[in-house]
Amino acid sequence: MASAKNQNSNAAARRAKLEEARRKERARERRGRVVTITAAVVVLAGLVAGGGYLMSAADEQDRAEEQARTSPVTGERTWDGLGQDHVETAVDYPMTPPVGGDHNPVWMNCDADVYTKAIPNENAVHSLEHGAVWVTYNDKADDADVKALAERVGKTPYSLMSPVADQKDPLVLSAWGKQVTVKSASDARVAQFFTKYVQGPQTPEPGAACGGGVAG
Length: 216
Hints:
By secondary structure, the protein is α/β, with parallel strands linked by helices. It folds into two domains: 1-70; 77-197, Glutaredoxin (3-Layer(aba) Sandwich), CATH 3.40.30. It contains four helices and six strands, in the order αββαβαβββα. The chain has a six-stranded mixed β-sheet. Strand 5 (171-175) and strand 6 form a beta hairpin. Helix 1 packs across helix 4 (188-197). The relative contact order is 0.14.
């Protein structure tokens, strides 16, 4: 009888030990599920928050661009009634660099083109007619500004850049009928001028080609 009792006692101990092991395993599984669910909630919350932030940032950028397009550019000069005839001869423009007027039948390539030597005014003006922004500089311009502006032009279709030795100011931005002098490449008016006038409302021939012209 003692032996049977011992066996029963041992069996009960094993069952208790097994049940305790199972209880601990269930507890670990519950903790694992809690951790997994918590992590998923944190990730989801982060995605929601991140998505909201990105949407907010995009909305803010849209508002900034709209403001740039609708606000006047400080210090900008404007010319109206500019001729648009095609001519094969040199044109005596009333401003330097020119912002419009009669011009050569072939435009200067303006698909993010940076020229290191002077280009013909008559071809560049044709590019402005197509909605390009023309960045020009003289030998008084700071090298760092020239480099930074060249990088911007190099990333912007419907823009071109070249030196103009006889312009009055070191850095000038021109579009058809529009022109502004800027102090540096970091001048806020640079970004505004590009936003407003690359294929902007001043363009006489919006959508016309900026490639396939004179390559310089």
